Amino acid sequence: MYKQIVAAEAMDVVINMYSFDIFDTVITRKTKKPSEIFELMQEKMQLDTVYAWLSPRVRNNFALLRMAAEKNAVEFYSEKRQITLKNIYEVFSSMTGISDEYIDDLIQLELSTEKLSVVPIKENIDLIMEYRNSGERVVFISDMYLSEREIRFLLQDLHYVFDDIKIYVSSDCNCLKSTGELFTYVKNKEKLTYEKWIHIGDNYFSDYLIPRQLGITTKLYKNKIPKDAYLVQINDNEVSRKAYTAITNIYKDYYGPKLVGLFAGILLYDYIEWIIEMAILRHLTKLCFIARDGYVLKKIADIIISTEKIDIETEYVYSSRISWRCLDDEAINNLKGYMLELIDRPQKEIGFVDLQASGKSFDNMERICSYDMHYFCFVMLENGTRGRKNWWVYSKRGSYEAKVELLCRALHGATIGYKEDGNKFVPVIDKFSISTEQHQTYQTYINSVCDVTKCLENMAVNQHEKLDFYSYKEKLLQKIFESPSEDISDFIGEINHDNTNDDNTKYAPKMNRYQLLNCLEGKEDYKGVNIDYSILRASKADREYISQKLDERKHIYTDYFAEVATSKSKKIIIYGAGKKGTRDFNILMNRADIQIVAWVDVDWENKIKAGWPVISLKEALKKTYDYMYISIVSDMDIIKNYLAECGVDKDKMIFSLNGVI
């Protein structure tokens, strides 16, 4: 049945344990995608009056909000190897304002919806039965936010074989299959060796590559059970859909900064509508927009509040990381003075509005001023909302969302502190210098955002219904950051991105094919922030040229290893053959004192098929080397422990983040 397993057993290897992944290995969902579980929940929320207490925004966007909450939970609980279902709904609460008393109801709805969706995979159930009847040891191993108790709830009534098999799940063990740690944990708990262990699962990386590199015999299972084509009846907001169509038609002839203003206007309008809705529910009477990202946001809020005659004041707060992380006594007193004049009412009635932050600066300001207020942001970095009752997050932290700050630039310098001026405290603003043309271009963009906001507000007032564009968020961000027209990319790419306001530091400067290629090959420094966006700005011919040249470099790497070894003083193995590893190889191969003796990647088989001269870690460790140069930019401690478990001396490990050897 399984060639690799049969081969291992035919070699007279005594197998001490068989382990199986759970989802899509021994059970599977009838839905085509896991996220369809959330769509089924959303359908129930829209049809069942039991959930009428949920706001229209939650009922109409539950699936998207639930997925965003899961992604944010991974960020917010970054010290954990695996989040839990409870963690996800704690973050969901910070995105929707749903109180803790209702969170358990939503968790139970999710578990019951999951239970109705899962079915056993007979092929592997039979295999487990065969092993169990032969007296073999069998366990389940899963990377999952569900606990063992929650998984057993799903498994009960499916098959009696599930009743007493031990389950090792990442959320309980606080370690992952995908990093190798969960396999090490199970090895120690079960008191066995990797060589006498067979693991079966469906994930190419965490069930096949990672355990295989540890020495476990692995079998990649391909789930053959057909998925149901669920026809989930989710009702969209018809008024919002028509408004989106209408406004994109009204401004269809826009281009450049005006067109970016159209897409950004719809996106930021929805963000501010969410903030105002949350503020009204919490009886806030003042919203303070934090500089400099709050510059455009306040203009949008003022239009909405004025049009709808909402009893909320707004204020623009001059601030920065520097001014709110002050250290000396004078700076602290000046900050207190400025904030005291600003906070002219009970703190519980005030909310601060930001775009993205870790919360560290706001924490420091609250501590210095002894304040405790509401805080709203588009995305929260790191573990910002954890442990805070009055911190609210609009969206997940994704590759697009992190770039939204480019759409909220202010036409003034950074706040570098505060000073006493007569009878009041005022901000000290750094110099701000941009050309007249740049100023006019960005002002055109801001005017477009305001025009779009006014148009949307008139539509909402005329229809007597709130507009909701949360489900359009990804589409709008993609139009700006993933597949922009040339005029959009030219506007975004030329935006200043340096806090020093250096005119020479653009987000993604326009470059020719040779400049881009030199940067990608490590021959010259990139003088921007996002080289991928600079590549987007290049012509199709230039992009094809760059792709071809990078592909041709595979032969250069192959030729490098074909050369006769020299007496270079340092012999290294590079671990990682992605973008970072390729860049590091380009730099290190030209070092006179370094010889690269091997290039390793966990997915070495597919890399070899694609023409890359990489080998397995097992083969690399047979070579003589001085250092293992690790070209991976995250989870350094996890990678270090994993490589040590695979046989690499920790004293020989060097991370590329710590600098070139």
Question: Explain this structure to me?
Answer:
- The protein is an alpha/beta fold and 661 residues long.
- It is 47% helix and 13% strand.
- The protein contains 26 helices and 20 strands.
- Strands 5-4-1-6-7 form a 5-stranded parallel sheet, sandwiched between helices. Strands 9-8-10-12-14 form a 5-stranded parallel sheet. Strands 18-17-19-20 form a 4-stranded parallel sheet, with helices on one face.
- Strand 6 (197-201), helix 10 and strand 7 (217-220) form a beta-alpha-beta unit.
- It is globular and about 85 Å long.
- Residues 499-503 have low confidence and may be disordered.
Radius of gyration: 28 Å
What structural class should be given to the helix and strand makeup? alpha/beta
Number of helices: 26
Q: Quick one: overall form?
A: globular
Strand content: 5-15%
Mean pLDDT: 87
Q: Span between N and C termini? A: 48 Å
Widest sheet: strand ordering = 5-4-1-6-7
Main sheet properties:
5 strands, parallel
Compute the number of strand runs: 20
Low-confidence segments, given as residue ranges, are 499-503
Approximately how much helix is present in the residues? 40-55%
